[in-house]
């Protein structure tokens, strides 16, 4: 369903800490926490849970009775499980059970093309309790055109990563090239991994229509101190 292959998922998992995600995350998580503080909930499912940091922080702040994280990357699921958080490597549509809240954090929806997005949102609706909420954030057009494009290079002595990105006709393409150090001394060498990861621009009205959920609210999010918002935080409800 997602447009990351298993290889690209594993590569992304290896380098997520080099991409500034953890530094930007608290500002984004605050939007989720502020809304969750206003409702009563007993269960929360995070789709694309990554390393589990979001679920850990929400559980710590809110004491939610039931939390679950799912991700298509076995490496990410193992990181979430390592934090003591229930998690599964499974597609949302194959999961059983319903939840009061479902979240898709850090532009998870942008990794789905139009057809995959439609299928995913139908499954979101099916896995929400009546009156339940779907919370997500999506990249704005400004975010794609002015924040995400270009080249990015980082070296932490053990890994050397380059990311070359372009955005055209609503499609964002990033080529990840990673060199990982292996061995020591005379046996030291670098192994190369390379994958292309795509994202897609989606309008909020499209998400509302495809999900069959009711619009509740949206907020502009600026994670990188740019002139305009690079993300949009969206709240929908199942009536």
Describe the structure.
- The protein is of the alpha/beta class and 239 residues long.
- The protein has 2 domains: 6-142 and 201-237, 3-Layer(aba) Sandwich (Rossmann fold), CATH 3.40.50.150; 148-199, S-adenosyl-L-methionine-dependent methyltransferases (N-terminal domain of TfIIb, Single Sheet).
- 31% of the residues lie in helices and 36% in strands.
- It has 7 helices and 11 strands.
- The protein has a 7-stranded mixed sheet with strand order 3-2-1-4-5-11-10. It has a 4-stranded antiparallel sheet with strand order 6-7-8-9.
- Strand 4 (99-104), helix 5 and strand 5 (128-139) form a beta-alpha-beta unit.
- Helix 2 (21-36) packs parallel to helix 3 (53-62).
- The two termini are 26 Å apart.
- The model has no long low-confidence stretch (mean pLDDT 92).
- Bin the helical content: 25-40%
Report the end-to-end length measured between terminal Cα atoms: 26 Å
In round numbers, the mean pLDDT is 92
Mass-distribution shape: globular
Q: Would you identify the CATH H-level superfamily of the largest domain?
A: Vaccinia Virus protein VP39
Class by alpha and beta content: alpha/beta
Beta-strand proportion? 35-45%
- Poorly predicted parts: none
Give the count of structural domains: 2
Rg, please? 18 Å
Q: What string, H for helix and E for strand, traces the elements in order?
A: HHEHEHEEHEHEEEEHEE
Main sheet characteristics: 7 strands, mixed
CATH architecture call of the largest domain: 3-Layer(aba) Sandwich
Going across the biggest sheet, name each strand in turn: 3-2-1-4-5-11-10
What is the CATH level 1 assignment of the largest domain? Alpha Beta
């Amino acid at each position: 369903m997602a447009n990351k292959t298993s290889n690209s998922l594993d590569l992304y998992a290896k380098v997520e800490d080099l991409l500034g995600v953890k530094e930007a995350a608290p500002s984004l998580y605050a939007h989720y926490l502020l809304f969750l503080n206003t409702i009563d909930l007993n269960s929360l499912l995070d789709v694309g849970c990554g390393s589990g940091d979001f679920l850990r922080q929400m559980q710590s702040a809110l004491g939610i009775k039931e939390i679950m994280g799912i991700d298509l990357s076995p490496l990410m699921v193992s990181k979430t499980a390592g934090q003591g958080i229930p998690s599964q490597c499974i597609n949302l549509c194959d999961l059983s059970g319903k939840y009061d809240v479902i979240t898709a954090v850090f532009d998870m929806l942008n990794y789905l093309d139009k057809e995959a997005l439609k299928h995913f949102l139908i499954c979101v609706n099916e896995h929400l309790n009546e009156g339940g909420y779907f919370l997500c954030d999506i990249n704005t057009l400004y975010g794609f055109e002015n924040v995400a494009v270009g080249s990015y290079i980082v070296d932490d002595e053990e890994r050397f990563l380059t990311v070359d990105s372009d955005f055209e006709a609503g499609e964002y393409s990033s080529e990840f090239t990673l060199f990982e150090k292996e061995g020591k001394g005379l046996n030291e060498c670098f192994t190369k991994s390379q994958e292309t990861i795509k994202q897609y621009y989606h309008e909020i009205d499209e998400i509302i229509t495809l999900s069959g959920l009711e619009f509740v609210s949206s907020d502009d999010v600026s994670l990188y101190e740019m002139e305009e918002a690079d993300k949009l935080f969206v709240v929908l409800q199942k009536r």
